[in-house]
Amino acid sequence: MELVIALFIGLLYASGVYLLLRRSIVKLILGVFVISNATNLIIFLSGGITRSGVSFIGDEAEKASLETMTDPLPQALILTAIVIGLGIAAYILALKYKYFETTGTHDLDQLSKTDQK
Amino acid sequence: MIFAFLFRHFHGREYVAIGAAALNLLISVILLIQVSTDGMVKMQMGDWPAPFGITLIADRFSALMVFVSAIVFITTMAYSIQSVDSRRKSFGFYLFSFGILMGVNGSFLAGDIFNLYVWFEVMLMASFILMSHGGERNQLEGAIKYLILNLISSFFFVAGIGLLYGKIGTLNMADIAQKLMSYETMPPELNPAFILIFVGFAIKGALVPFFFWLPASYHTPPPVVTALFAGLLTKVGIYSLIRFYTLFLHQNSEFWQPLILWIAGLSMVIGVITATSQFEFRKILSFHIISQVGYVVMGLGLFTVAGLAGAIFFLAHNMISKTNAFLVAGYVHRQKGTLNLKVLGDFYKEHPLWAIFFFISAFSLAGLPPLSGFIGKYLLIKAGIEAKQLGIAFIALFVGFFTLFSMVKIWMEVFWKKTPEKPPVPIIKTTLFDDKPVNINWMTWSSGAMAIVIVLAGVFATPIVEYCTLAAESLMQPSEYINFVLNHTQEL
Domain span at residue B228? Predict the structure, then answer.
């Protein structure tokens, strides 16, 4: 299972980088989202995944040993990262909308007005 | 106690903002005094003991950084009263400025790597919004470049945190350092995590292979925003790098030390040489940020007490001088409506006081004797020679001359030259401000206060250098930090 998720993360990163290198700003933004989710999965995987292991020791405390328990901390970290990612997604889309409204273009190559000629 | 920093995200106008900034300055002074007597102050959030809960810790280095950023913040806020237009003010300019302050202070005080990441994001979100705030076309372009590259750096950083946690099993900086010390050699499977974290910090701190976002975006927002960013944001990346290097990376120094010295040398040289080819006031200053960040990293790369003390002093000096140089740029922009060096001129004749402010901050950046920059460069170069790294010391000297050259160029073009009768390039006037008359000349007072601080820091440098040396000594002895954090007694 870890191998599958690891390969999947690799695939996500590859497609994210591919999207980042496109000329369209929308695809650039999509690439950022994909990479952000790949990063969340890395944290998830690095905490170690245990099939059907519980995160918290509940009433059956004696049954949950360290071997079968999943580390809850990475999941808490991902939760934080997802929330931050959501805020950034909302902001970046609003920025894109405003940019399109002002300039009427999706093209990254048009972004050179402020550079020195 | 430290957490008075946190309850300041209210929506306030000018005087509330100044009052809150003054309060922040006051608290940082208290923190500084407390730290200089006790050595370190810590706070465990929610009373959870150290390796499990979130630790906030201030040692001498971070207390100094908090203090200097409080100075930078209060002057930029005072300056913004006059320089920012009322439309921006009413759409939360102060709110997001305080957001940046909160993120910056949090990053300086964080004792936990994930907490550091969250503070970075707080700071970044606020800075994204300030960067695009006002919605002019130039700003939006700058904001897109700034935003994408900084987000990628955050992903690097957080992926590094994830991998590090997977291997080490803790997020507390002191606990990680302790676990690393228990190994004979650095386990090789940790290197990917550290490389990722290093790249994240290097993008944030605008070190050489990763600096492109900075000069592409810093000249687009209103000048006071650039001044605030230049004073605080890249410095946080460098602060974190110093913290990580002294706690973790030095245990593998035969790999990291040459790498960091090379990056420092390249940052200094490339930053300063690209700056000489620019003809925009703020772009020149932006490229100089890269070169001066190189100086700080050079002090870190030497990894001696003298080198680190020089780096800390230089970092503090640079925050103040650089901000003031940008504040002067803001005034020039306000008077002339443009910052293109080819069009400007005669500023010394028209505004001699501002010429003096620029002279002080620019030549402090270049490192002329009575000013604070000289002391910083002197300490760094002396430390370089003592550490037998003659190459990097020579580069630092050589870059100093080039810095002087760019500063003299700005001086000649903006302040001395006669205004060309026929502008060689068309003037594009932008309206970033409104001309509402104010009773007090806030811009002059705030920039003047910064200039006075620069002169004082240069003339009375001895106690500051002593403080920096103490701070560097405690950075070189990470076991002190580790024991202090992991010692489970309640302090506050």
Answer: 2-427+442-486
Answer yes or no: is B433 within a domain: no
**Averaged pLDDT score across all residues of chain B:** 83
Contacts of A61 (CB under 8 A, 6+ apart): none
Contact B308, B380 (CB under 8 A): no
Q: What is the C-alpha separation between B410 and B365, in angstroms, rounded?
A: 13
In a domain, B96, yes or no: yes
Statement: residue A11 has pLDDT above 70 = yes
Digit-coded pLDDT (tens) for B315-368: 999 999 999 999 988 888 887 777 777 778 777 888 888 888 888 888 888 887
What predicted TM-score, i.e. pTM, was given to this entire model? 0.88
- Best probe of the B interface among A69, A82, A84, A111, by most B CBs < 10 A, is A84
Task: Number of A to B CB contacts under 8 A, please give it.
Answer: 94
Give the residue from chain A lying closest to B136, CA to CA: A102
> Which pair of tokens denotes residue B309?
């003390």
Q: Which residues of B touch A74 (CB under 8 A)?
A: 162, 165-166
What is the tens place of the pLDDT at every residue in B63-118?
A: 899 999 999 998 988 888 777 777 777 777 888 888 898 899 889 988 888 889 99
Chain segment B147-200, per-residue pLDDT in tens: 989 999 999 999 999 888 888 888 888 888 888 888 877 778 888 889 999 999
| Interface contact B144-A77, CB threshold 8 A | no
Judged by CB atoms closer than 8 Å, whether chains meet at A98 and B171 is answered as no
Beta-bridge mates of residue B340: B280
Q: Tell me what ipTM this predicted complex has.
A: 0.88
- Cβ-Cβ contacts under 8 Å, B161 against chain A: 43, 77
Domain borders along chain A are 2-51+68-110
* B491/B168 Cα distance (integer angstroms): 27
* Beta partners for residue B303, in sequence order: none
Over 80: is that where the pLDDT of B283 sits?
yes
Q: For residue B492, is it within any domain?
A: no
For range B285-311, the mean pLDDT: 90
* CATH dotted code for A2-51+68-110: 1.10.287.3510
A111 has a pLDDT exceeding 80: no
| Cβ separation A46–B280 shorter than 8 A | no
Phi-psi region of B432 (alpha: psi -120 to 50; beta: other; left: phi over 0): alpha
The encoded tokens of residue A8 equal: 């999947």
The single-letter DSSP state of residue B306 is: H
- The larger pLDDT score, comparing residue B371 to residue B202, is at B202
Alpha helices in B218-252, H assignment, sequence order? 223-247
Number of domains in chain B: 1
Q: From CA B118, how far away is CA B107, in angstroms rounded?
A: 9
* Mean pLDDT across chain A: 81
**Neighbour-count burial of B327, counting CB atoms closer than 10 A to its CB (0-12 exposed, 13-18 middle, 19+ buried):** buried
**Is residue B137 assigned to a domain?**
yes
B172 bridge partner residues:
B112
In sequence order, what are the residues at sequence separation of 6 or more whose Cβ sits closer than 8 angstroms to the Cβ of residue B80?
B93, B94, B97, B224
> In terms of pLDDT, which residue wins out, B453 or B430?
B453
